[in-house]
């Protein structure tokens, strides 16, 4: 069963399937290597290990585990904004039934505001800069710390 993991701080989110659950449980030491572990046990361990999972974006330990958005809607819990992960008010859904974002995010989008945060070095906290890689062929870009290299 697909689940969605999300960070309460930076609103990063990702869908995870069975293979991702195995990998994440191995990373946090909750699953021993077995050929075919019981799926019910894997699901239960995954639900109980949410406080140990780490955000890929900001490094926060402790993530939320939810049903994917489409499945959430089937349960009548409302629709979640794809940008900020807050519930979209039912009044907005009555007027715009196909909307995927809330009023605040729609306003930011209409005003052209860019609310993306810069990436910071995990070692020293310096703002990362974009640089090109050396070598022939396609130009590739990567983020690097000006202080740490």
From TrEMBL:
Organism: Bremerella alba
The organism's place on the tree of life at top rank: Bacteria
Entry keywords, A to Z: Metal-binding, Zinc, Zinc-finger
Zinc fingers classed as dksA C4-type: ranges: 81-105
GO molecular function terms attached to this record: zinc ion binding
Keyword check for Zinc-finger: yes
Protein's name in the database: Zinc finger DksA/TraR C4-type domain-containing protein
Domain Zinc finger DksA/TraR C4-type residues, every copy: 78-108
Keyword DNA repair annotated: no
């Amino acid at each position: 069963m697909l689940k969605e993991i999300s960070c309460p701080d930076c609103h990063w989110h990702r869908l995870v399937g069975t293979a991702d659950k195995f990998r994440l449980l191995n990373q946090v030491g909750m699953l021993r290597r077995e050929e075919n572990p019981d799926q019910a046990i894997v699901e239960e361990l995954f639900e109980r290990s949410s406080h140990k999972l780490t955000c890929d974006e900001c490094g926060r330990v402790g993530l939320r585990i939810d049903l994917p958005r489409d499945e959430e809607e089937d349960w009548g819990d409302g629709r979640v904004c794809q940008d900020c992960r807050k519930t979209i008010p039912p009044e907005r859904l009555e007027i715009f039934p196909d909307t995927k974002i809330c009023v605040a995010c729609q306003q930011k989008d209409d005003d052209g505001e860019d609310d993306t945060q810069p990436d910071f070095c995990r070692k020293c906290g310096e703002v990362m800069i974009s640089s090109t890689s050396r070598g022939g062929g396609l130009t590739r870009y990567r983020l690097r710390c000006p202080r740490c290299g």
